[in-house]
Design brief:
2 domains
């Protein structure tokens, strides 16, 4: 009984952080200011509850959510090295991609595994959903852990084969602490993975 009471108290504390009665700003106008094949930039006029007006810009891609998959092979995490045009260098990350129309997040995760590293998974465990940058774009991402892998290849759209990098689970802390490893999405996912499998220091 005492343990249950503690758990309930913790849930109440967490909810007090997340919940608010504060009214959301009123959206007065939304205008498209730029459009490319991939992105759309919108100007959004807001009126806050205190009467203040502000115009913010937001990046709106196709509003398709994405998936990230942490594929476990024994005591290793299978990561990929892929060129990132934003940082203009090869970045280490996890299997990821957009969810296609009509797909569930689980289906997209299994497809991306086969397209990017040529493996399927008999077990797929959801970790959680998180937003990449809620201030400026929609961008929800669903993180999964894939286990019991087997060879299965689907043709993807990568311009070059992705390099597979096997990272020992026991060394995830070293990777997270490395300043050269800076993809916030992957950092968040790795910390979730550590909590799920109990390898955090």
């Amino acid at each position: 009984m005492k343990k249950a009471a503690c758990t309930s108290g913790r849930e109440e504390i967490i909810m007090s952080f997340l919940s608010t009665d504060k009214p959301k700003p009123q959206i007065l106008d939304v205008r498209i200011t730029a459009q490319t094949k991939v992105f759309q930039i919108q100007s959004v006029d807001l009126q806050f509850a205190n009467g203040q007006h502000r115009t913010y810009e937001r990046l709106t891609p196709s509003r398709r959510p994405a998936v990230m998959v942490m594929a476990l092979e024994g005591d290793n995490l299978l990561m990929v090295r892929e060129y990132a045009v934003g940082s203009e260098r090869y970045e280490l990350g996890c299997v990821k991609g957009l969810i296609d129309a009509g797909e569930t997040p689980e289906q997209a995760a299994l497809r991306e595994l086969q397209e990017e590293i040529g493996l399927g998974a008999r077990r797929l465990e959801p970790l959680r959903m998180f937003y990449v940058n809620p201030s400026h774009m929609f961008g929800p991402m669903y993180a999964f852990v894939a286990r019991d892998l087997y060879p299965s290849v689907l043709k993807g759209d990568e311009p070059e084969p992705l390099e597979i990098v096997r990272v020992p689970l026991a060394r995830l802390d070293e990777l997270i602490d490395d300043d050269q490893f800076g993809d916030a999405r992957t950092l968040a996912a790795l910390m979730l993975l550590q909590r799920a499998i109990g390898t955090a220091k």
